[in-house]
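Quick one:
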Amino acid sequence: MKFVLLIFTLLEKLSECRQEYTPYGRLIESNKLFHHKKVSASRSIHKARGDNKKKSRYYRPPRQRKNENQEGGRRGPRGMPGPPGPPGTCPENVCRAAVEPQFSNLLKEIATQLENENLQSTPARIAFTVGLSDKNFTRVNSKPTTVVYDRVILNQSTGEAGFGRGGYSPISGAFVAPVEGIYHFTVTALQNEKRKQVFVVLTKQPEDVALCSITSQGNYQSSSCSAFVRLKVGEFVQVELLRGVLLGHPYLFNTFSGSYYGD
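Output:
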């Protein structure tokens, strides 16, 4: 037990000695008889002058607390902010040359935006969806016939076509473009009879151009097709039945829909 206490005592003395100068170091430091050499941020080497023997002693400078300044006092609390200074001055010619171009450009941008907003009309909102829900549809006199869908779910259009307001017509079965632009159309078809084929085509009129087609040869087979097309005001798109019979059902197995994509 005494041996353990002796070891602790020696360790405490060694720690105290490390924090202070050695006797030789105190002598050299008091007489300023040393050469100072910085080794690192926390250690320096002092070499004695006028001594034939090369003796060196390590010196560790005392640590300073972060909240103390060089004089040893504590840093006080932060003061209140001072009053605002006087407004700055700028020569008239310098300020005008710097501000006027930016201000005039901003006014031009605002005027251009207002003109564009006034020139642009309300964006077109055109969409429709129709289907066969009441009875089957078949060809007339065994010739290609425009399919007329009896159930109109949505038929919204803006603008005026060349011969009346555009949109889907439940009388003719055609969709008339109320404004010029790109449109997207989708057609679904389901054959009614098991042994008869169905052939449906989506056409653009009056050029009579086929956009997409559907053929069904299975038992109550369902098919679909879609297409993008650019239409002018007054041009129209319709679904033509070339062969077979389309099934009319409340579940709307046969539909025709389209919408305005953009200019």
